[in-house]
């Protein structure tokens, strides 16, 4: 480790995303959508490949934000876009959570949150999940000094989602700091807290085009919240790079948002395949946590997660296994096409039979 590094960088443990294999595998490890993006995306790419790339992007991303605002039923000034929701989350950590008090976070959630917290010197106060592997909203919102509250809904990698009513109760209790609800997976059966932003000026909802819009390769994410919160995100962004997203991402994002029929067809397919997959995994003896996301977390009473992960890998199927004690017995399996899930179930039959 170099002495030239600053102390904060020396203590960093970078987030390691799931593997992107070079060989052809059934890839069920990083919660991508198995279906292609809306057909209009290809047209937008063709149009933009010609003249438009010569020009800088609109620093206010008005066209994309206007379409996003219409899709979400909010005003354009309540929207913010960035390069993937990971970047939007990074801006939000800087804008809202850098106070001299801990950030309340569930213990077992998206593993990027601790990375950002460390990067920005934010102390975390972790709250264990309850006996049903659900985020304990009472613990998360218990009174005390805090810099904010963050939760993914649906949570990752468990897949459980709280109702809007439960989220509202949390927002009634935490009024002094920002409550950030990360809705990366909301379109696969959960209720969106965007409906609550008018009433709770401290609520920031983040989302992504990577999952339900099939655009993980592009890096496009957003935040929705009160104008005051969006202003803070703009300040952080402008101090860093005043072009929020590039022209291509903007055009492609608009095309993806405009095709509601394609969006609904893809997410309905994923949800139907998820339900079929859960029944088939249960028939093989797995217990599967109820999921409102495009993945499931499953464990087998007789086989360890690492063992099944390796066995599947040998059979050309990539799933996610987390090397943390609490999740050691689990596999997180992204919902792919029906054919891909047939392949998974056949391979697990061979491994567990
Ligand atoms: N939030 C959660 C809970 C996630 O699982 C992910 C994807 N790994 C993200 C945010 C980031 O998504 P993206 O940067 O692709 O928008």
> Numbering strands along the chain, what is their spatial order in the largest sheet?
2-8-7-6-5-3-4
Rg from alpha-carbon coordinates: 20 Å
Count of discrete domains? 2
- CATH topology name of the largest domain, in short, is Aspartate Aminotransferase, domain 2
- Classified in CATH, the superfamily of the largest domain is Type I PLP-dependent aspartate aminotransferase-like (Major domain)
Distance between the termini: 47 Å
Counting helices, strands and paired strands, the structural category is alpha/beta
The geometry reads as globular
H/E series: HEHHEHEHEHEHEEEHHHEEHEEH
In terms of topology, how is this protein built?
Blueprint: H1 7-10, E1 26-27, H2 39-50, H3 62-72, E2 79-82, H4 84-96, E3 103-107, H5 112-119, E4 124-128, H6 137-140, E5 148-152, H7 164-173, E6 179-182, E7 203-208, E8 221-225, H8 227-238, H9 247-258, H10 260-283, E9 287-288, E10 295-299, H11 305-314, E11 317-318, E12 330-334, H12 338-352
Parallel strand pairs: 1-11, 3-4, 3-5, 5-6, 6-7
Antiparallel strand pairs: 2-8, 7-8, 9-10, 10-12
Helix pairs in contact: 2-9, 3-9, 4-5, 4-8
The structure holds 4'-deoxy-4'-aminopyridoxal-5'-phosphate.
4'-deoxy-4'-aminopyridoxal-5'-phosphate (PMP) is lined by residues 84-86, 110, 152, 156, 182, 184, 208, 210, 216, 221.
């Amino acid at each position: 480790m170099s002495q030239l590094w600053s102390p904060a960088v020396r203590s960093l443990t970078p987030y390691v995303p799931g593997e992107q294999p070079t060989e052809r595998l059934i890839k069920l490890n990083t919660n991508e959508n198995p279906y292609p993006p809306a057909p209009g995306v290809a047209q937008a790419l063709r149009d933009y490949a010609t003249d438009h790339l010569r020009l800088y992007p609109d620093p206010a991303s008005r066209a994309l934000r206007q379409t996003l605002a219409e899709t979400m039923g909010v005003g354009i000034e309540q929207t913010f876009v960035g390069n993937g929701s990971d970047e939007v989350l990074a801006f939000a950590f800087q804008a809202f959570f850098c106070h001299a008090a801990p950030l309340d976070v569930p213990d077992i959630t998206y593993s990027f949150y601790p990375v950002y917290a460390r990067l920005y010197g934010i102390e975390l106060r972790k709250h264990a999940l309850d006996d049903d592997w659900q985020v304990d909203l009472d613990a998360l919102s218990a009174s005390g000094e805090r810099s904010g509250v963050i939760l993914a809904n649906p949570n990752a990698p468990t897949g459980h989602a709280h109702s809007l009513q439960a989220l509202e109760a949390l927002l009634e209790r935490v009024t002094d700091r920002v409550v950030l609800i990360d809705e990366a997976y909301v379109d696969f059966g959960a209720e969106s807290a965007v409906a609550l932003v008018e009433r709770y000026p401290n609520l920031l909802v983040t989302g992504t085009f990577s999952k339900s819009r099939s655009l993980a390769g592009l890096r496009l994410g957003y935040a929705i919240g009160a104008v005051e919160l969006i202003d803070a995100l703009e300040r952080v962004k402008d101090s860093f790079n005043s072009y929020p997203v590039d022209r291509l991402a903007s055009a492609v994002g608009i095309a993806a948002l405009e095709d509601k029929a394609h969006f609904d067809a893809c997410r309905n397919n994923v949800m139907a395949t998820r339900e079929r997959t859960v029944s088939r995994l249960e028939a093989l003896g797995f217990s599967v946590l109820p999921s409102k996301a495009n993945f499931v977390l499953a464990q087998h009473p007789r086989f360890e997660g690492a063992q099944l992960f390796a066995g599947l890998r040998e059979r050309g199927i990539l799933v996610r296994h987390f090397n943390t004690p609490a999740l050691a017995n689990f596999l997180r399996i992204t919902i792919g096409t029906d054919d891909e899930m047939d392949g998974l179930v056949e391979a697990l039959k061979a491994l567990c039979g």
